Every structure is written in structure tokens, then in C-alpha cells.
Amino acid sequence: MEDCLFCKILSGKVSTKKIYEDDKVLAFGDINPQAPVHILVIPKKHIVNLNDVGEDDIVLLGHIQVVISKLARNNKLFDGYRVVNNCGVDGGQTVQHLHYHLLGGRVFGWPPG
Ligand code: AMP
Ligand code: ZN
Known about the structure:
By secondary structure, the chain is an alpha+beta fold. It has helices at 5-11, 58-74, 88-91; strands spanning 18-21, 25-29, 37-43, 82-84, 100-104.
């Protein structure tokens, strides 16, 4: 996926602050943090968004949630945190590679904007 920013991050063409990596996922700091902790977790497989996932992705998607849980613990977010997935135009998705925002270190409002 030559035009995909997050695929370029995965291939090392674009540099980021790497926080965690394994065979399935990469986690890195958001370039424009919206909270004291703002980490993006992405699958290494190019998936546009949740409209593109299927039964074959169940293990991967479960794995992402476990990684997010560990990252929250590692960042001492013991009072809670927010996990966000923006999907498509109405969801405000700006990068077309599935990603989850882990946001923490402050109190978030509800409903979101
Ligand atoms: P979304 O709006 O949900 O698609 O989120 C995309 C996120 O990617 C935004 O929070 C951006 O700040 C973040 N982002 C864009 N470019 C980079 C980059 N080069 N490194 C890290 N984060 C980025
Ligand atoms: Zn991609």
C-alpha cells in the first residue's frame, strides 16, 4: 500500500516514536496528541477500517485489544482511559489504515464531539 501513511510507518519510510511492536501490531505516539497519553495501535496488515474486517481478523482484533490493555497498564492509566476507533467519513477517519487511539491521563467528556 504505497500511498498509505501507516504502511509507510510500518516499512520505516516515515519515522515515529515506536512504543510497542510484535508480529501482528505496531504502537506509536500520535504526532498531534490530544491527551497526556495518546498512542495509536495499528495492525501490520493493511485494513482500511472496520468496514473491511471479517471472520479471518477475529484473532488480530482480539490481540489489538489485549495490547491496548497492556499499554494502558504500562502507562499507569489505572483510573481509566478511552479507546477510539474513527471509521469512515462520518467517524472522522483521516488515515485510511485501521487504527485505535489509546487516550489517557485526563478526564474525557461524553458525548464526544
Ligand atoms: P484518525 O483521525 O482517527 O484517522 O486518526 C489519525 C491520527 O493519526 C491522528 O490523530 C493524527 O494526529 C495521527 N497521525 C497523522 N500522521 C501521523 C504521523 N506521521 N505519526 C503519528 N501520528 C500521526
Ligand atoms: Zn496501510
